[in-house]
Structures are given as structure tokens and as C-alpha cells.
Amino acid sequence: MFTKQVLGRTTADTEGDVVVLLIGMRVNHFWAVHQWLPVMMAMFRMLGELARNHDRGLLGHVMLTASPRTYYVVQYWESKEKLYAYAHSPEMFHHRAWAIVNRKERAGKTRGHVGLWHEAYVVPEGSYEAIYLDMPAFGLARAHGQVPVERRGRSAKDRFAHRSGRKAAEGTK
User: Fold this and answer.
1) At what angle do helices 33-52 and 93-106 cross, to 10 degrees?
2) If we measure between CA atoms, which residue out of 160, 171, 167 comes closest to residue 129?
3) Whole-model pTM?
4) Residue 8, number of CB atoms within 10 A of its CB
5) CA 147 to the chain's CA centroid
6) Rounded to whole angstroms, how far apart are CA atoms 10 and 77?
7) What is the rounded CA–CA span in Å between residue 137 and residue 8?
8) CA atoms of 39 and 66, how far apart (whole Å)
């Protein structure tokens, strides 16, 4: 089995604010496969669409499960503007999928077989930190790059205090 290289103690090579989207589904009735499977497949289709066009702004994602019923994706975006642009773009699949969901809801045709949810966060620089020990690039580090922890600080306090050159330059204007 192939394994990814692990680099000892590392951190994410982020600059500026971090945009995180948590998006997922909950299977309310396992037997209603015809209801929840299309939702799951739609997420895979959207991730594929984003992977084919990096200019849309998705930097990386991690697929996770919270329980046998709940599945979600942690997505890292270049900016909230690019996240909004993707969500509202008529030529992208997300727009069409949500139009179907909204039409069914207005017509009273949702039956509660599958739940949908998302949470979006813009985390300002200085309000996040990350550390990975003997891990290949994962999560934030996979989306933004991975560097030795010494580049950002050995302690969480130091990593929270780290400021990228971009933010430091903005602060001197």
C-alpha cells in the first residue's frame, strides 16, 4: 500500500483569512435510498465540477462522517466572494440542484427522508492555528500547503500570533 510522506511536526501555510464551508446531509430514513442517494451523488458531482476548474476558488476538501446517518464535507475556499459566486452561478450544478430542492419544498413534496445543512465561516488571520504531527498534508494544510511548525511558531500562542506578509503590509497602509 502506498503511503504519503509524513513530515514530523508541521502546520498549515496559510496567509490571511480562511474561508471554511461545512456542508452535509443526514439520512433520516435509510430505506428511502431513492431520496438520499441523489443528494449524495449531487455533492460528488459538485466537487468534480469544482476540481475541473480551480479558478472557482475551492482550495481543498475533506469528506467526513459524523455517524452512520450524517455525512459532510469540510471545504476550504480562496474567498467568500468565490464561494458566493459558485453558489449563485446559473451555469454551475449547485444552482440547478438548489432550484430543485426549493421547488419541491414550495410544492410540499419534501418528505423528511434526507436533511441538508451547511455552515460557512470566514476566520480572520490570527484566529486560527493548526498543528499536524507525523501527518501527510490534511485539512487546512492540504488546502493551503504544509510547512515545518518552526515557520509559524512552536506553540499555539505563537501560531495564532503569526501574521503573513500580506496582512502585515495591509496594516501599514
Assistant:
1) 150
2) 160
3) 0.86
4) 10
5) 20
6) 21
7) 11
8) 17
65 φ/ψ angles, rounded to the nearest 5 degrees? -130, 140
Q: Dihedrals φ, ψ of 28, to 5°? A: -85, -30
Which amino acid appears at position 2 of this protein?
F
Q: Report d(CA 81, CA 122) in Å as an integer.
A: 11
Average pLDDT over every residue of 156-166 = 81
In this structure, what DSSP letter does residue 31 have? T
pLDDT tens figures, 82-102:
999 999 999 999 999 999 999
Cβ–Cβ contacts within 10 Å for residue 34, how many?
8
Average pLDDT over residues 39-66: 96
**Cα-based distances in Å from 44 to 6, 38, 47, 66, 155:** 28, 10, 5, 18, 37
Q: Per the structure block, which three cell numbers stand in for 101?
A: 430542492
Q: What pLDDT does 162 receive?
A: 84
φ, ψ for residue 160, nearest 5 deg = -65, -35
